[in-house]
Every structure is written in C-alpha cells, then in structure tokens.
C-alpha cells in the first residue's frame, strides 16, 4: 500500500522478552491499532536484538537507513546505548523522525551543570531537529514496588537485582528504597533503620556470559535471609527463582519489571508489576509526524494519576500480583492514594512525595535538607545511591 | 553451622548439577576415545528443547527425554563424521557448537520468557537422609535431577573400574588394537558410548531449563558452561570422582562472585566474573606435567608420589584418533 | 589336534604377501617360520590367528574346516598369537589386562582373577605383580603376561612373532623352557617367527621357509645355520668384513652428564666419540640408550654436566644448533620422527637444505631429483612421503643427511628392513664414517652391533658398561650383558 | 594450472551440497506466508539494494577477512586459535587506548599508530595462549576460550572506569574515540573506510606470499603436520608455533581496531561480536586454503547483512547463524564423504 504509514522499532533485546523490549513492541502494536481506528493503515518494521553479540554486523545507523529504504518516517530507538548512534542517524536522515527512549540529548541541561564536581563540563551540541527523547517516570512505579516489598517481607530484608549502574538505575533503586522505607515504618510498623535493602548489580540489562548470573544472585539474596527480591533487569529471572522456591515451600516473593504481563511467568510468587505503557505517547508522536510534524522535545511522562492503569492515558502503571496478601493490598492502595494526593495538590493532608528531604547520599552528604524538594533533574541524573541502601553506587 | 551458609552450600550443589552431568557425559565419550567438543552449543540447544517440549506437552519427563534425544543425535553426527567419514573431531565439534547455539536461539523464540511455574523437575527431599545434620540440607533436599547426578557419579565409577564392559570401554580409548584382539567391537562401542555421553549432555541441558534455572531466554544463561565442563573433564583426569570435585569447585566460585559483591569487600564485578576463567587456565596448568613436578618439590618426599598420582591426569592414549582395524 | 592351511592367498595392492601357501602343523611340535623381511611370515600368522582374513584358502583344525571373523574367534578355536609388540593396555594393571577378554559376567571378582593369575605365574616361574600398571613392565614381562593370558583362554596353538628381539639371554632361556613345557605337557603347537637362526636351532623341532610370499621349503631339525641360510636366501650371504677406519680427534663429548627420562635417571655419564669411530649401543628397550642419544644430540636438556662438540660447549643449546654443527639425530620411527606425512619429497629437501628465509622451489625440485637419482629412491619429487615403501622412506632419510656430518646419532637405523636394504644403509653410513664422521647407533640386533661397532656400550637399568674388546665379544656374551650380567660381575 | 582445477572441484561439489542443504533449511523454517524467494530477495536487498547496503557488506568483510587470513596461518601450524575473538578485542582496546592517549592531532600520524597498537595488542593476547601452549602444553582451545571471556571483562572494566564518558556515566559504552583516530567512510552512501580496505587487501596478499614462498611458511606446514619430525629436520618448532599465533593475533588486532575506529566509534561490550568464530567457520569451510578466504568471507558478509533485512520478514536474525553453521557442517561432511568414496579407488590404482 502506497499511502500506509511505516514506522521502525529498534530493540536491544527480543520482542517477546516479557520485559522492556516487549513493552515497547506492544506500544508499537498499540499505535497500529489506534491509527487503524482513525482510518490510517500503519506498518511497523522491527529490528530486535540489536547488540554486538546477536547482530555484530548491524549498527543503528545501518538499520535506520534500511528502515528508511522501507519507507519508515518515524523510528523508535529504545535502548540507552543507542543514543549517540541515533543522533548520527538522525543527522544522516533528516526526513525521518527519531525518538530515543531513556536518553537526554534533547535536554539542555547536562549532568555537569548540576554536579560540576562529578562530571566534566562539555559544551553541548544541539541534536538535529528530527530527534527527540522520551521516558516514563518509572520511579513512581518503583516506589510502589518497594512499598509492596516492605509490606510483604517477614525477615525485614529486601534484595534489588540491579542491571548495570547508571543514573537511571540508581534513580530506580533509590525510589524503590524510599517507598520501602516509608511503608515499612508507616504501614508495617517496622523500624526503618532495621530494614535491610541491598542491591547487587549483575552488570547488564540481560544476563550474558560476561555478567553475573541473575538467578545465582537471586538465590544468594534468598539464602542470606532476604524474602523479597525486586528485579531491575529486563528478563524475569528473579521471579522464576522465587516461584521455584515457593514450589519447594520457601516463603519468598519477587517483583518483576517493565512489562504488564510479567507476573504470568510465576504468578504465585509475584507481588505485583511496575510497568511501562509506551503506546499512548508513541501514538501522540506518530500523529504529530503524520500531521504538521514532530517538534523536538525531551519528555519524561508521569502516570495518569487519575487512573494509573488506564491503557490509553498512563505512561507508567502498577498492577498487584496474585501473591500480594489482602492486608498488604489495602495498605499498598493507601500508599498509592497518598502519592496521588500529593500529585493532585502538594498541599493535601496525608500526601506523600518521594523526593522530599531529609535525604542523604550513600556517602552521607546531603541531597535535600528537611522539607526541601529535590530538583527533578537532579533526580534524573542522580549521581549516587541514597543513604540506607547496601550496594555499590558506581562500578569502580 | 548457620543457616545462611547451609543454604549457600545447598544452592551450590544444585547449581553445579548440570556441570556434573555434562562433564560425566563427556567423560564417558572421551573414555571411549572420542571428543565431543560441541558441549557449549549442545547444552543450549538441549536446554531449549527440554523446556520447549515440556512447555508444549505439559510433561517435564517428555521434555527431558526429548533433550536427551537431541544430545544423542548431535553425538551421533560427531561419531559418524569421525568414524565413517574420518573427519577431524575437533572441527566437526566446533562447528556443531556454533550451529547448536544458533539453532537454540532461532527455534527457542516461541518459548522465550514463557511461564515457568511448575516447570521444575519433581522436588523431593529424601525422607530420612534429609534430616541428617548439615549433609541432609545440603545434599538431600533437592529435585530429582540432583539425585540423578549422584547416581551417575557412582554408577559410572563402578562401570568403568569394576565391570568387564567397563574394561572394554576404557580399552577402546586406551589401545583399540588390544581391544580388537580381545574381540571388542571397537567402533561399534565408540558409537554407543559417544551417543550415551551425548544423551547425558542432553540431560545436563535439561537440568538447566527444567531444573536449576527453569525457562528459556536469549542469550542462553548457560553459555560458556560447556567449555568449563570440557575443562573439568581434563582437570578431573577422566575420573568420575575428580570430575565431580571439579564441577563443585567451579560452581562454588560462581556462587562466591555474588556473595563477595554483597559483602563489604570492594571488588569490581568484572574481576569476580573472570575468576572461573582464570581457574580454568590454572587447573589446566596444574594437570600439565611440568607444573606438577615443580609444585611437588615443595611437598615432603613421602607425600609427593601420592600427590602426583592424584594430580596426574593422562588423557586416554587413543583420544581423538581413528581405529581402522576392522575395515579389513 | 593338527592345524592345516590350504592354498592361502593374500594380496596388499601390488604386493603378493602370501602366495598359495599350504602347510600342516602337528600337535606337540615347535615349528620355526623363517624368511627375510617382507617374505610374508607375519601375514600368514595373522591369517591363522584371525587378525587378517585370507583372500582365499582354507584353515582346518583337526580336519574340521573353520572360518573365523577375528582374533577372538581364533582363540575360541584355541589359536592365540603373541605379537611382536604385545597387544596389552598400558594404563591397565597386570590384573586388569589378564582379566580383560576372559569370559564372565558383568563384574569380575579380583580375588579369583588374582588367584588364577598367580597359579599360572608360579607354574612357569613368572614374576608379575598383579597391581602394577603394564606400562611399567619390561618387554619380557609383557610377553609373559600375554602368554598366561592366552593360556588362561585355553589356547593350544601359540604363535610368537619375533619374541626374542629386545629381551635378554636369560629371559630368552626362561621363555624357551616354558615353550618346551607347553609342547610336551599340553601337546600344544608352538609357531615361532624369527630371524635369529640360533634361536630356531635351539628351540624348534622343524622349520618352514617363506620367500616373496611363497613356501619355499621345510626342514626337520636339527640343521646347521648354513643349511637354513641357503634355504632362506637361496645361497650364502657374503660375510661382512669389518674394516676399521683410522680415528681422528674427539668430536662429541658428555662430561659428568646427569640425564633422566620418565622411567630412570642416569648420573655422572662420561662419554666421548672420535671422528671416524662407530659406537654401538646395546640394551633392552628403556635401559637408557634413548635419553643417552637424545642428550648427545641436544634433544633433551641435561640436568647437570656438559655436552661438548669439538671443544665447543653446547650445553643447553637447542637441537637446531647441534644441527648447525652437523651433529644429526635419526630416530627409529620413520613417519613418527624423521619424515612428515603429507609433505612431498621436495618439501622435505627444501626443509633440510634452505638456508635463508626465502624458498627457491625450482632449485629445490632440481636438487630433489638429483638426490632421487643418487639414492635410487623409488618415487617422484612430487610424491607425498607416505606413499613410498618402507625401504624407500629409509633411503629418503639418508638423502636428507648432510654429506659430511660431524656425528650421526641413529636409533635402530635398520629396524624393519630386509637384509639388502639394511646392508645398503650401512654402505651409506660407513662411507660417511670413512670421510671422518662419528657414528653412534643403537640396535636390538646384536648381530648388527657386533658387525659394525668399533666400541659397544651396554645399557642396563641406566647403568653403562663398555665391552672391553669388541673384536672378541660374541652375540651370546652380549645377550647376557644386556640382561644385566655385568652388574653382578662388576 | 591443474592445481586450481582440482581446487575448484574440491570446493564446487561440497559447496553445492551445502547450498542445497541451506535452501532446504530455509524452505523448512520460513513462515507459511513467506517464500524462499522472499528470503533470497531479503538477502539481496540487505546486501545490494543500494550502495549503502553494499558498503555494509564491505565493512563487515574487512574484519572477517583479516581474521580469516590470520587463522589460515594458525591452522597451517596445526593450532586451533579459538582465542582469536579475544585477540580482536585486545587489538580494539589497544587502538582505543592509544587514541585516547594521543587525543587530537594529525590522523596521518595517529591512525597508523592506533592500527600498529592494535596489532601489538592482538599479538600480545595471542602470546599468552602461545606461552601456555609451548611452555606448559595447555590446549590453545581452552586457554583461548578463557582468554576471550577475560578480554570481555577487561573491556567492561575500562568502560566502567577510566574510559567512561566524562559527561555522564552510561555504563554500556566508553566516551567516543577522538576524531583524529576515527576511520571515515568515503561518503555517506559509500560508507567504507579506504584504510580498512587497503590494509585488508595488503594483508591477504602478504600472507599468501609468505605462506607460499618463505621458509617460515614451510616451517608452519611442517610443524602443523608433525612437530617431532619437523624438529629433527631443523625447524624451530616452538618459535614457529609461537610466531604463528602472534601473527594471527596481530591480524585479528587490526580487525578489532576496525570495529572501534570505524564501526562503533566507541568501546562497548562484546564489540568483537563473534567475528573471530565466524572467521574459524570460514577457514574450516575452505580447509584453510588461504586464497579462498576473501571470497568466502564476502559470502558470509552478504549472508549477515541479508540477515538485517530478514527481520523485516519477522524472521529471527539468528537464522543467519543457523544457515552458516549448516552450510559449513554440510560442506565438511560432504568433503569427508567425497574423500571416503575416492580413497579406495586410489589404493587400487
Ligand atoms: N597392511 C598391509 N598393507 C599393505 N602391505 C602390507 C601390509 N602388511 C604387510 N604388507 C606387505 O606384505 C609383505 C609381507 O609382509 P609381512 O609383514 O608378512 O612380512 P614379514 O615376513 O613378516 O616381514 P618381517 O620379517 O619384517 O616381519 C610386505 O611387502 C609388506 O610390506
Ligand atoms: N602396514 C602397512 N600399511 C599400509 N601399507 C603398507 C604397510 N606396509 C607396507 N605397505 C605398503 O606395501 C608396499 C610394500 O611395503 P614394504 O614396506 O614391505 O616395501 P618392501 O616391499 O619392503 O620394499 P622395500 O624393500 O623398499 O621396503 C608399499 O607400498 C607400502 O606402502
Ligand atoms: Mg613380520
Ligand atoms: Mg620392507
């Protein structure tokens, strides 16, 4: 069909990984479906597993060019490490709109502006106009996950299965910890100081021969007394191990990540799932491209606080898992309501905001003083883990 | 002994099981004089098959059998290539390594990330044994596949060193001509043992995907283990007991990597990840004659011989060679 | 029970190894099988013992025609063969070797097996420690093990292919006694393949002679050596005159050398050889000749001591340097150590002669053809070496030697060659000797040692004994010495 | 003359068989709605649709050919240099390291230095395996596998630490290599590095000459076929084996530098991308006959770039790997079969 709308989707992993990549892929399918309702026939061409191991011959630039040859007008590059290549591709193909998720090239601020002593200042090159960034405020989802974990742990010890260490992952770990600490004190009536919250980094988003084995790590957590493991990696290893151990009578849980349907892997062990809904935003962008053109932007989109699970409006959501107990569920809902309350009006009684002081970095230095609210961009570029978290802040 | 440590040891035994089975399978094959180098790929492929079939049929046993069948077929290819076609076993094995790995990824797509609930081989703590102090928790509180690995160790040891067929088995790997002179059908037995060894490799693959870490994903989590298993066979001097020792040693180091990071010791992940590979080189160094002798000099005279006999690891003399005595 | 062979034929490509051989062996007799190399002796015996099928012909046992599929089947008919290199498994213990191949159930009872082994050993006065790995035994012991193994299998026809090569005189006596006992007490048939006429004369009741694959004669013993020789070669061989060439100065010297290999260690070895001198090394396999020779050529490093080539210290230098000084080592195995299967004759010549970094193939080919002429090699420059026959391969090895070596260190230079080939080789060597090369060679053929050596060193368990006067020594005396006789003497 | 003729026969028959096997495989695996034609079409588009696609083929051909020709050397010497992957990696790392050290400056100076450094790095990594082999008899297969893994860890450590992007801390790739060290494509459409092409062609020619015409080439052959005899014929066997691995490592190093200085422009995990293993396949496919390396490498490059396009048919790109593996296996078996059928006749004749 000549007048069909073609868009490309470049994935670092497999489209059916029950995680990050599948979430994006289904976002693309959502676009097709909605456009069809609007009478536009759209076609998505996918390139998955774009990584040196599975596709050594392919680079983002080449794949993008091939997609352009196939008639793609819009291309989503959906992994952190694609950013520089995406910028090059965008420069080479000015007629194609490029959306890179989780990056920040389209953002004026650089880490050096916020943390001059940690990052060297480099004068910023403005990206081409046909380039933009998109990310969801997953920290809210992670906070809920942390809370769910705190409400379910009996040993008072929670493990976080970390991928590689960068600002994004530090942000998520910290958010999960803050949620856990808050709920552990307020709803579980525990002593926040006594809550053990540890992160172990395997070294990459997915297990490879070069990383730690995430199942091994999850086992280490459980063997050392943790009874809930929150997953920060794409595949579902934590949940798998938890499920297996439950079948053997151990009382342990896990919380997967990224994809709405992730709990299906091992429902009995799944406390819930913080997930991305890329569809709505992707649709917006597609429509812009179809209409009077996409305007460069760096978007960091929040959940739809009126209904965090509304498939047509929310960018980030949370669903309870089968393993979440009645009581925990009610308390968790209460916690979510507190977050909503703040988002609707910070002045609200009994409202909770994640990034409100007093907050210290792991090394004890102050991030935010009592009552002070952290600058969102400082959260985006968070240079260290927060105080109270056991685990490395940097790879060195 | 505190729980955490017991748990860690228990996990160690569990996660070593595939290595144990794979290395034992290869031991059987190499004792017959054939090298099956394809392990690293075979493990991935058979793991995928085991999970895929088990998932499709809802029957784990069928999955395991399917995996063993695939392992056997790969072994058969190697046997035919080396015995009938007189090709270099290493070459064929290496190609199969890569091919099998890619096949597992290509045909594994439908099963990637599929639910793993109830996909683990039957878990049964052994009634009385599991209550023994320490060993009970560490060795007898597992799923069936782990016990199978125990059975294999002792079974193979008994087979090789205490039975008449065992004598023939070792002889065709040591001196086929002598075996032939005693009426042993050398090449037929080489077929059989290569295939048996291959099917054990299949069982090892299955013991990942429906045992130690259920499910299927790309890249396969067991990548690299095949090579380690092959090295373990050498380190194990082609003797079941030492092979098991080696397998537990490697698994132990892996477990350590995670444990160390969670401890206060500041070591980069990357360094921890290199440990098993450094160990691989080190063990091969150790069993290479020259080094032993140098090390033994440190020991007191009396112990030297015993240590030497324990460390020495001479491959089956006829390993990797052809025997044409029968095509007459 | 008699054994009869009828019209046995066997071809290997062009070679007609057995050509219409018919013969009968009667119970209780010890029969010698004679013939030069390549005559077809081993082939005939392999056919009789099931290792190779005949192209045509029949075997009758006690008048019954039998057809068997392999050695096992032959043994079932009571026919067992003791190969030149005993077919045992080095990694197995004596007991395991004894047990392996014996009928029985799934498992075997070590105690029973050991008891049966000891029974037989006592009967024949063998000393075979049940739990020692076979690779640690001497050739003689391994022969003994094979014999008891075969007897335990109920063998009544025992074939021995050149059993007396590489064992001492005493061990030989013991073996012969056993064989006689078997023949008399059990009415067993003993077939002895041997080149050593004195052995045949000492042991056999009758002999048959093969030549070029045909049965050319039979002879009741006793008979004299000359009778047998004329039967074998259809005429007398001219006796080898031994011409002493004049000796120059010392060209190769070992000083307080401390050598060792996997088996044994040798301390304070002192040795020197002079230009134009031929030194023969006698001794059973693994008595120390090999490390000694490899040390002389710099192939094994000394643990201590010095190697000198013409007053130049070569200790610790690689073999390449020895080669540069024209000290050349020739190993026993042709295709194992010396020639390279898969390379052409030209490749070999180029390897041996190219001085610089570039290879001039045209030149190399010309040179190769010249050598082929000169050494009467049956083969072309472009042939792969393994396509040549044994003797021709040996000829190529000779062609690879430098024209004027300082010292030649040769392991069993004529092993497995027929008498003509062997003599031809020695012509080549002695020619170089006369030009002033020193020659150090080892051999299992005592005859050869006595014939060609100016000096003989006898090796036993790492001990070295120099025969005082070669001109007076005999094959017999040497046979005793290699058995370690000099150890008691000195 | 006659040689090449037999060579052609030697390749033709089994290759044909292999291709047939591959074709059958494709027919078996493609989803019902796509045909063999579509797949071939996809391969064609991926490789030749336009100049840019074709340059993609050449870009991949460069490292693959370099590795392949290097492996021909080690195979000559009877060595299984599975460590070639790690040698590529170290080569790339050395190149990157030099680039970072030298910073900006004249490419005419920096690029040669980086490539030389890459050769050094590859050779160095190879020498580890070589040392373990000649000194302790540790199988180069196993040391190779281990050294590959270790090389990857070194890469990750460098990315995480000294080479991490200064202006952020992305954990997956280093900061970009300075422009002065970047190899540039001829044009946006013909995006191939001339330097890479020239270096590769020169390398191939040199290696073929050395193997055919020098004593070293002959030594390799001798050592490969029978080290013990070779020693007695005056070949410095250990040096020969050692040097074979080092030279192969150096060539692999250049290949690695191409990945960094051209393809990615930064250092990232696994940047060698299994090209070393592909190289082994290439060489096995042609039983180490050097002349054929460029051709077969080209074939493989086409298959891989076709693989890119395969995905647009919703076929997993690991299919390419399956096809290559199947091709090589089929050819190996066919070779064996043909030799088996020919041997008896020879013996008679
Ligand atoms: N397997 C074989 N293939 C080809 N030719 C063979 C084979 N075995 C023996 N021959 C040839 O057949 C002929 C007879 O060999 P055979 O070994 O029987 O001689 P022999 O009398 O035993 O010699 P020797 O005294 O050296 O043992 C020789 O020319 C030999 O080269
Ligand atoms: N064991 C064997 N296996 C295969 N072929 C053999 C074997 N022994 C000998 N041949 C082949 O048989 C032929 C004769 O072998 P042999 O070594 O006996 O030569 P020959 O007849 O003794 O001549 P020469 O006196 O030159 O040695 C040669 O072509 C050789 O390649
Ligand atoms: Mg013979
Ligand atoms: Mg001969």
Structure description:
The complex is a heterotetramer of chains A (396), B (328), C (490) and D (349). Chain B has 328 residues and is mostly helical. In chain B, 71% of the residues lie in helices and 2% in strands. Chain B has a domain at 3-221. Chain B has helices at residues 3-31, 39-57, 60-84, 89-108, 135-139, 144-162, 164-174, 176-181, 186-212, 225-235, 240-262, 269-287, 289-296, 301-311, and strands spanning 123-125, 141-143. In chain B, strands 1-2 form a two-stranded antiparallel ribbon. The longest helix of chain B is centred in the first third of the chain and has 29 residues, at 3-31. Chain C is built from 17 helices and 20 strands. In chain C, strands 6-7-8-3-9-10 form a six-stranded mixed beta sheet, sandwiched between helices. In chain C, a hairpin with a 2-residue loop joins strand 19 (455-460) and strand 20. In chain C, helix 11 crosses helix 12 (361-374). Chain D is mostly helical and 349 residues long. Chain D has a single domain (57-319), classed as Orthogonal Bundle (ABC transporter involved in vitamin B12 uptake, BtuC), CATH 1.10.3470. Chain D has helices at residues 2-29, 36-48, 51-76, 84-102, 107-136, 140-160, 194-213, 215-225, 227-232, 237-264, 275-285, 293-310, 318-348. Residues 345-349 of chain D have low confidence and may be disordered. Chains in contact: A-B, A-D, B-C, B-D, C-D. Residues 12, 15, 17, 35, 37-43, 416 of chain C line the site of one adenosine-5'-triphosphate. One magnesium ion (MG) is lined by residues 37-38, 390-391, 418 of chain C.
Judged by helices, strands and strand pairing, the structural class of chain C is alpha/beta
Strand content of chain B: under 5%
Protein chains sharing the most extensive interface:
A-D, 45 and 49 residues
Distance between the ends of chain B: 64 Å
Secondary structure: elements and pairs:
The complex is a heterotetramer of chains A (396), B (328), C (490) and D (349).
Chain A: E1 5-10, H1 20-37, E2 42-47, H2 60-69, E3 72-77, H3 83-92, E4 97-101, H4 111-114, E5 131-136, H5 138-152, E6 157-162, H6 167-186, E7 196-201, H7 214-223, E8 228-231, H8 237-247, E9 253-255, E10 272-276, H9 279-290, E11 298-301, E12 316-320, H10 326-344, E13 359-360, E14 366-368, H11 376-380, E15 389-390
Parallel strand pairs in A: 1-2, 1-3, 3-4, 4-5, 5-11, 6-7, 6-8, 7-15, 8-9
Antiparallel strand pairs in A: 10-12, 13-14
Helix pairs in contact in A: 1-9, 2-3, 5-6, 5-10, 7-8
Chain B: H1 3-31, H2 39-57, H3 60-84, H4 89-108, E1 123-125, H5 135-139, E2 141-143, H6 144-162, H7 164-174, H8 176-181, H9 186-212, H10 225-235, H11 240-262, H12 269-287, H13 289-296, H14 301-311
Helix pairs in contact in B: 1-6, 1-9, 1-10, 1-11, 2-3, 2-4, 2-9, 2-10, 3-4, 3-9, 6-7, 10-11, 10-12, 11-12
Chain D: H1 2-29, H2 36-48, H3 51-76, H4 84-102, H5 107-136, H6 140-160, H7 194-213, H8 215-225, H9 227-232, H10 237-264, H11 275-285, H12 293-310, H13 318-348
The complex binds adenosine-5'-triphosphate (2 copies) and magnesium ion (2 copies).
One adenosine-5'-triphosphate binds next to α13 of chain C.
